[in-house]
Design a protein that fits this description.
Elements (H helix, E strand, L loop, with lengths): L1 H11 L7 H26 L1 H6 L1 H25 L11 H7 L2 H15 L4 H7 L1 H27 L2
Helix pairs in contact: 1-4, 2-4, 2-8, 4-6, 6-7, 6-8
Amino acid sequence: MERIQEKTFHIIKLAPPKRLPGKVFDLFLVALILLNVFIVVQEFTHPEAYAAMYEPWQVVRWFSLTFFTVEYVLRIWTAVQKYAYRDPVTGRLKYMTTPFMVIDFLAIVPFYLYQIDTLVVRILNIFKLLKLVKATRYVRRILAYERWRLFGRK
C-alpha cells in the first residue's frame, strides 16, 4: 500500500521533476479547470447558449466534481510522503490547512452545497477562479522544468 501511495504522490505532486503520468495528470487537471471556468463564465455572460448546452455541461460538472474530490482526497492521503507532513494525523491536518488545499476545498464545496442554497453556491464559485490561479502555477512549473531539462543539464 505504501508503494501505491508513493507512486500516486509522484503523479499528483506539484513540483517537478515529473514523469509522463504526472505531466499528463497536470495537463488534464489544467484543462478541466479551464473548462469549468469557461462553463461558469458562459452561464453568466451567455445564458441562452449555456441553456442550450445545459445537459452536457451538467455531465462535465459531475465528472469534475468526482475528479476534483478524488484528487483532493488523494492529496491528503499522499501528504505523508512530504517530510513536513510525515505524521499520519497531524501532518495531514496541517497539509489540509495550506492555502492551495483550502482553495481546493472551497472550490469543491459549492457542488455539495448546491441543494442547500444557490446564493452560497454562486458566491463560492469565485473559488473556481482561484483554482485557475493554481493552474497557472502548474503551467509555470511545467514550463520551467522543461526549460531546465532542455537547456540546464549537460
